[in-house]
Specification:
binds guanosine-5'-diphosphate-beta-L-fucopyranose, alpha/beta, 41% helix, 323 residues, 10 helices, six-stranded parallel beta sheet
Length: 323
């Protein structure tokens, strides 16, 4: 562990600033006294090495958050293996290598809890990485994210770069993707419950058996944890970011129904995959670094539902996309 990395007065690039995670990090950095750099998609294609190298060489950030990634829910991962593997490998390799070349002082790479083996011990410690086979539905994304961790470690060892990695659990919050085919479970269930309520339907369709367990972290909490880690952590091992508690998808569906005010029944769809049986992170390392999640699930769900109603529910006047 080295001295704290101060953000004040630094130039900080958030790669992926339009996404749910990147935009939350931009909001979180507002009070840090740093200059926030962003690049619009039409200005910079992160899959093109030369573009990324030129952008970094020109703008010379002191610190970088790698929040850019191709992400999606269980079905999107399963249906587009090439996109999830290729796009994520290209984005992270380009940014990490170009950051090394541009002399970036500190970089935080973001992955996902799906890097761990399908049957990892629960809660999953950082040391469970590569101890067993991956969950088949998201192995492509997981392999890309494991490569990102290894890139940070390799550039540390070979070039002395202070590049670190953080692995968040399943995320949700304002700015999430509410498309029913490609989204994660929380935005999907919020939207489906909202539609069922407004259309007077008496059931809410929930994929799979309802028995898998998941841990959910509100994205504003994640952004706070990332800012904390870039300041205080300089180790080689990746750090889990989670809440330390999980629940079944069935219980999640009940909480979502309560949030939305949907009073009908829940109908499981066994034709859809369950995915990993359980994904709970061991957050003792993060805890020892002085950070804990603060947003209870019910509060986060209420805030996410409010965001959906304000920003995304208008799309539903045209399509219902029942899934
Ligand atoms: O959120 P989700 O798509 O991601 O699904 P994973 C979590 C669980 O919710 C699965 C169930 O058991 C789904 O079957 N589920 C129930 C639903 N209803 C729905 C629904 O309407 N939509 C969705 N999407 N799920 C992803 C990985 O896995 O987690 C990614 O595929 C990434 O790579 C991400 O790691 C964090 O937790 O199963």
């Amino acid at each position: 562990m080295t001295a704290e990395f101060a953000l004040r007065g630094k130039k900080v690039w958030i790669a992926g600033h339009r996404g749910m995670v990147g935009s939350a990090i931009v909001r979180r950095l507002a009070g840090e006294g740093c200059e926030v750099l962003t690049a619009a998609r039409d200005q910079l294609d992160l899959e093109r090495q030369q573009d990324v190298e030129e952008w970094l060489a020109t703008h010379r950030p002191d610190a970088v958050f790698v929040a850019a990634a191709k992400v999606g829910g269980i079905l999107a991962n399963d249906a587009h293996p090439a996109s999830f593997l290729y796009e994520n490998l290209m984005i992270e390799a380009n940014i990490i290598h170009a950051s090394y070349r541009a002399g970036v002082q500190k970089l935080l790479f973001l992955g996902s809890s799906c890097i761990y083996p399908k049957h990892a011990p629960q809660p999953m410690p950082e040391s469970a990485l590569l101890e067993g086979a991956l969950e088949p539905t998201n192995q492509w994304y997981a392999v890309a994210k494991i490569a990102g961790i290894k890139l940070c470690q390799a550039y540390r060892r070979q070039h002395g770069c202070n590049f670190i990695s953080a692995m968040p659990t399943n995320l949700y919050g304002p700015g999430d993707n509410f498309d029913l085919q490609t989204s994660h479970v929380i935005p999907a269930l919020l939207r489906k419950a909202h539609l069922a309520k407004t259309e007077g339907s008496d059931s809410l369709a929930v994929w799979g058996s309802g028995t898998p367990r998941r841990e959910f972290l509100y994205v504003e909490d994640l952004a706070d944890a990332c800012v904390h880690l870039i300041k205080v952590y300089s180790g080689e091992e990746h750090i889990n970011i989670g809440t330390g508690t999980d629940l079944t998808i069935h219980d999640l569906a009940l909480s979502v129904a309560r949030t939305v005010g949907f009073e009908g029944s829940i109908k499981f769809d066994p034709s859809k995959p369950d995915g990993t049986p359980r994904k709970l992170l061991d957050v003792r390392k993060l805890d020892s670094l002085g950070w804990r999640a603060t947003t209870p699930l019910d509060d986060g769900l209420a805030r996410t539902y409010a965001w959906y109603r304000e920003h995304a529910s208008k799309d539903d006047s045209e399509t219902t996309g029942a899934a």
